[in-house]
Predict the structure.
Amino acid sequence: MSEERKDKIIQDGVSRRSVLGIGSAALAAAAFGELSAHAQTREGTRKAEGDHSSSNPGQENKPLLAENPHSNTPPPTDQGDVGPIWYSYDLTHKRIQEGGWTHQVTQRELPSSTEIAGVNMRLTAGSFRELHWHTADEWSIMLYGNARVTVLNPDGTILIDDVSKGDLWYFPAGFPHSIQGLGSLAEDRAAVGGQKVQSPIQYTFRMEAMAPTKRSTGGEIRIVDSHNFPVAKNIAAALDIIKPGGLRELHWHPNAPEWQFYMAGKGRMTVFMPVGSARTMDFNANDVGFVPFNAGHYVENTGDTDLVFLEMFKASEVLDFSLNQWIRRLPPEMVTSHLKLDNNAIHTIPAENLEILPR
Ligand code: MN
């Protein structure tokens, strides 16, 4: 800064501090102004899709784009700011040590998920997840392989059980537990005192092996919560299998935000938030999804194999509202005046909460 300019500032009574203040305010205002000026509108996107506006002659990360076509070039209905709804374990670092590795998607990676954090872990055969406990409840599902889990009750009884692919366990906060490679289950149970110290409470559940809670030609959903797995008082889960072209119908959950883990296939989800904002993103195996409390969403299988994912809630039960069912429970004149659907169209909408729509 020239001496002359400094003098001018001093004369005007503007301190360095207030110069910075003015600068930042102007910057914030500029960013805000730009956001509103350039927020996507349906008309704008439709028009842009017809010309060369959406192409990018500059740099592109092509593998990432190919995996996330709808995240990058969203449908024209996307609008406004929904906040982060996607992260992937494959963007996090693995903590590798002898016997396996862990990687995590926590609030650091997905700031909007304040209630649930995820850990993806590999234990090689014969290795131990050391004896420990947590300050939060732990819900886990086996992705492959076999393991033995133990969990001690306050009354001194202990559960020792084996789990394999599709099985889950639930360890309440503070309950000491272990996870390890296998020996003989009967020998381990006998060695600690047999029947008389056996836990009367079941902490494991065969989720994949259970009969679907609901099933249609579009797929299946299995719900495990405190109604069929009493120990799961604070974490409820649904395992969705959606056939190619199938849809987890438009719904929302009135009791908790949703944390998702994608286990197989390809899908896309749109999340709707008040007022009028929407965000669409693509999801692949090993990705984590997040749906804010009460936000409407659907999940569509966009691949040619089954889309498999978990819906997780920090709640005692899975509760959802189906948009279809709501429409069908309303007097038809009310639907017609809101949605301009005639009586025939209204009656093609399923009246039940199907979870996964038939194809
Ligand atoms: Mn959901």
Q: What stands out?
A: The longest strand covers residues 266-273. The chain has a mean pLDDT of 87. The pocket of manganese (II) ion is lined by residues 251, 253, 258, 297, 311 (CB under 6 Å).
